[in-house]
Amino acid sequence: MKVLVTGGAGFIGSVTARALEAGGHEAGIFDDFSTGHEWACRGRRVYRGDIRDRGALDRAFADMRPDAVLHFAGKIIVPESVTNPGLYYDVNVIGSLRLLEAMRTAGCRRIVFSSSAAVYGTPERTPIAEDAPQNPISPYGRTKKHFEEALEDARPADGLGYASLRYFNACGAAPEWGLGEVREPETHLLPIVMRAALAGKPFTVCGTDYATRDGTCVRDYVDVRDLADAHVRALERLKPGVGNSYNLGTERGTTVREVVAVAGRVLGRPVAFVEGPRRPGDPPELVASCSKAREELGWTPARSLEDSVRAVAEFVRSRGGLEAR
Ligand SMILES: NC(=O)c1ccc[n+]([C@@H]2O[C@H](COP(=O)([O-])OP(=O)(O)OC[C@H]3O[C@@H](n4cnc5c(N)ncnc54)[C@H](O)[C@@H]3O)[C@@H](O)[C@H]2O)c1
Known about the structure:
The protein has helices at 11-22, 54-64, 78-83, 85-106, 139-158, 189-199, 224-236, 256-267, 291-297, 305-319; strands spanning 2-6, 26-31, 45-48, 68-71, 110-116, 161-167, 169-171, 203-206, 218-219, 221-223, 243-248, 254-255, 273-276, 285-286. The protein is an alpha/beta fold and 325 residues long. Strand 1 (2-6), helix 1 and strand 2 form a beta-alpha-beta unit. Residues 7, 9-13, 31-36, 50-52, 72-74, 76, 91, 95, 114, 116, 167, 169-170 line the site of nicotinamide-adenine-dinucleotide.
């Protein structure tokens, strides 16, 4: 299939674009490079543009004529969505609706959307299944929920085939493809831990008074290569007029302190941290139930957190550091 990958210069999108090609598909990238990187899309067709720009979208569709879209582009930082919700609604909702309209005009009726565990908010129980109540507690989570609903409305109206993939915490790297997570400022735990370990400087753990086994937040860390595999599987199973949502995680919860311990073990040196206050919009525990993805997509994550840490370490070594450049 010919697949237009929005946000394909970013962390998860770039690894998935490579996985698509490995699976025999063709990937074109649509990205505004606001957080993505040119080095992450070497060797493939790139359309530079903003998903809020309908003209740029139409030009990309007219040129590539894709059979499907993988939609990663968006703003992704939960605390920033609390302080600047307008930006999150503008990009994640209005931009995504523009994309949907451009698809409709171009007659492209298949889409896989990067949704998030943030649609659930603070869950009543874990592990979380897809039919759990959705009460997002951040503007970021609400923008993901709104676009999921827009897809479900477009399904009967446009004969759209869609899959909303609700990732839990993406981590890891694909050093074999020279790809990994590089952001400035860094907001995700594993790269922050790696930077702290490399610099020999402590990082701040946000919140140590949660009602969890060691007071820090419990998250379900899923490797980016496993996420990429799930996208290819979801794409290949899309059917016109049929929509689905899937949780993507490992069904295992790990606390921040445990992540630090795993990183220290793999890197062979302790990682120092200091205890800080909670961040707004962080639920105490998010762990996925993934039986639906297992049964319907035939997907099971193959990598452990140790594997992900090792991959990040290799990626960092190959780049000579984690700073954006
Ligand atoms: N990283 C995670 O743990 C995680 C968890 C759940 C969901 N997600 C979702 O997965 C998707 C990808 O996340 P990521 O971690 O790869 O983030 P990322 O920031 O690395 O990638 C986002 C990409 O989208 C591009 N982009 C942003 N705004 C754009 C716009 N207006 N027009 C065109 N391109 C634009 C950026 O330049 C970047 O290349 C996002 O939609 C995110 O919400 C990520």
